[in-house]
Amino acid sequence: MRTAIIVVAAFASGSVVTAWLTAPAAARPQPTATTQFRPTVTTELLRTDLADWCPGKEVVITVAANGPRDAAFGRHFHPGHSFSWIIEGSQTVHPDGAAPYDVTIGDIIHEEPFEISATGNAAPTKVLVLRILEKGQPATTNVI
What we know:
The protein is 14% helix and 42% strand. By secondary structure, the protein is mainly β. The chain has one domain (31-142): Jelly Rolls (Sandwich). The strands form three sheets. A five-stranded antiparallel β-sheet has the order 1-2-9-4-7, with no helix packed on it. Strands 6-5-8 form a three-stranded antiparallel β-sheet, with no helix packed on it. A two-stranded antiparallel ribbon has the order 3-10. The longest helix has 20 residues, at 2-21.
């Protein structure tokens, strides 16, 4: 009985997350006149302390729904490892000191700690992001 309850709960949770991740574009926030370049809605799904396994570190998993944006406005870095999986749309990544490259649905990007880059996209995208960070550090720091 207990196993059946756990299986049903896991299935229901998976169904809810799948429905949310695959919501139609019309249901997502759209750019407005005041948010022309970087309308981004970030939803934190999980934050967990790695405790004794990796003291002082935590894992943060988020979903970012990005509106259209020009890469010129978004140079940044992450203070820890960042892994991004493109769920919808495509982006062009502009790493400092390297050639830009395109990523599309199903691609995974790994950004090293303190690696400076910018990302541009002509149409909305949805990205699942997993970061390993020092506890208390911001996930992203903008670079001027």
